[in-house]
Amino acid sequence: MTMDNVKEKTEEEKKREEEAKKIIVAIHSRSLQMLQTDFDAYQVEGQIINHPNFGPMFVYRLKEKEGDKEYACGFFMNEMLQKHQDPGRASQWLASFYIDMIEAGVSRPLLAPPADQEAAKKLLDEQVVPFCATAVREEFGSDKVQVGFNMHKQAGPVLEAGFPQFKDGNNACAMPLQYLMTLHLMNRDPSDPLINGLYKIQEEHEEAKQA
Question: Global pTM?
């Protein structure tokens, strides 16, 4: 490889980085405007943070103008890109998280991340995992779903939920514990990706039956 090739590659990388930054800033700005329009009675603040494992993330806070309640929620880059393909859908989707928190009437600032590995394990063992297991079993029935831990080569420890009655094809979905904990810390429902994954598995088996 010549020095010209190295220089060209570096310039291409810089160009891709600049384009990615523009997309991130555009999504952030558009989301902020959507929330300000939908919640004009609140002071809306937003920021972009870079998660060491999940890359760029967006955090938005709604603060009461005449009160002390705060409602905060975080979002991943990939889901924002997907939702913003349809602006109307993106606006409704973003607003739904804050509507639920406002209706609950309890201030929901972002949670502080665990201070160390021991605190992270305690958070997972006592809050995140039990919540996910309960939510999944309530959604599908405890007799239909099994929930447990597994180890993935790339993702590390995961929480797995599946339908043991499905003997052929895919019958389980798994989410990294780190991902579930991040959802929890962002005031998101960590059981959602597991439940959505299980519904997709059900649909796949229904389609296979009809084929």
Answer: 0.88
